Amino acid sequence: MKPFISIISLISLLAAGPAMAAQATQDDSLRLAASRALLRTQPLASGSQMDTLVETNRATPDQVWVLGSATQPLPTQMTGEDRVPVSRLFLARRQAEGWQLALDDDPRFAELLEQVPAGWLSEAEKRAWRSQLAQSKRLAPENTGLGLPWRAGAAWSMTGGPHGYSGESQPYDSIDFAGGDGKVLAPQAGVIYKSCVRNGSALVKLVHDNGYSTTYYHMINLTSAPDGQRLDKGAYLGTIGNGLPCGGSTTGPHVHFSLIHQGQAEPVNRKRLGGWQFFAGNRAYQGYAQRDGNRVNVGGRLVHYHDGAEPAPPSPQPGGFSGVATPKAGNSHVNLRTSPSLGAPIGGKAKRGESVALVCHVRAEPVDGVWGRTDIWNQTSAGLWVSDGFVDTGSNQAVAPLCPASQRPW
């Protein structure tokens, strides 16, 4: 049956319109419209080149409709950070007064999608794009329905914890992975698009059917699948590498994996991928992954458990909120206070690395903690208080809800 399915898929793709590799557009007015649209939603990133790269991925024979991409190239440089260009797909229609254009994170993209000529985009493409609409039903906030981008059962290293497309840029929507056989695979079925195809590398995007999209950078030996083709879960995308087709920097062969939800960069903090729940640190590239109470820090290996059964989050504590005791250098424990103040009596202690169950938080006395100054104090399940500066919760914001008035000490 496999050859038959492949032939049917090819016929469907051809019927949807000619597929092509992304090519720099020769239309100056389209280039200007796409550049302006990208700059309106994404200010020029530090070090980006002023000339936006505008490419055509698909066009109708009469050149009235275009599916393309707009990318902010970066200078190629060697740094200690992983920098990735900003890129967005767009739909555009030529009209008498100029191009009507919408990026894929613009609600108007959906309007244009419903107006494209019949058969120009495949039904698989339309289904995937429609799932990106803001009014679509969302999965539980922490559940992405996605695996990890390598073979199930294999273990890869998390070489860089949650970070932005350019290091400290927000949100922390990306994670770096490397190891195993180096083959990057689709974490779920999705429609593929490539931008900035150069020297055997590209910016690769998969648009899934559940409101999520994923992007990949630095890969080499890319799949030959044409833009707009739907790939099954586990399909080959490329191999980890140091590819910089649109510039940026890399710290060694790996894949820069990014998460998007309904057109917007999505923080990976607390998201579940491949059986693991990921937590961001207080700085870029920090953080950890957790499964069934087992914690893996940056540099550790993660087995891909995506067998359809996501484990329940480890939550023996009330509310399911917790932090890891992180005292300052030279100290072996964190003091738990009877009220949210360093001057309050000590009611208990938590050893370095010990999990602390958190119930709620208040804003109280500022404390110079491990990651800087904070006024967040967390109440523990034992009714004691600990400054957020001395517990690693995976976020620099409060993770537990605000304490009700009845539980506040004033």
TrEMBL record:
<protein>
    <submittedName>
        <fullName>Peptidoglycan DD-metalloendopeptidase family protein</fullName>
    </submittedName>
</protein>
<feature type="region of interest" description="Disordered">
    <location>
        <begin position="307"/>
        <end position="349"/>
    </location>
</feature>
<dbReference type="InterPro" id="IPR050570">
    <property type="entry name" value="Cell_wall_metabolism_enzyme"/>
</dbReference>
<feature type="signal peptide">
    <location>
        <begin position="1"/>
        <end position="21"/>
    </location>
</feature>
<dbReference type="InterPro" id="IPR000841">
    <property type="entry name" value="Pept_M23A_Blytic"/>
</dbReference>
<dbReference type="InterPro" id="IPR016047">
    <property type="entry name" value="M23ase_b-sheet_dom"/>
</dbReference>
<keyword id="KW-0732">Signal</keyword>
<dbReference type="InterPro" id="IPR011055">
    <property type="entry name" value="Dup_hybrid_motif"/>
</dbReference>
<feature type="domain" description="M23ase beta-sheet core">
    <location>
        <begin position="173"/>
        <end position="265"/>
    </location>
</feature>
<feature type="compositionally biased region" description="Polar residues">
    <location>
        <begin position="332"/>
        <end position="341"/>
    </location>
</feature>
<dbReference type="Pfam" id="PF01551">
    <property type="entry name" value="Peptidase_M23"/>
</dbReference>
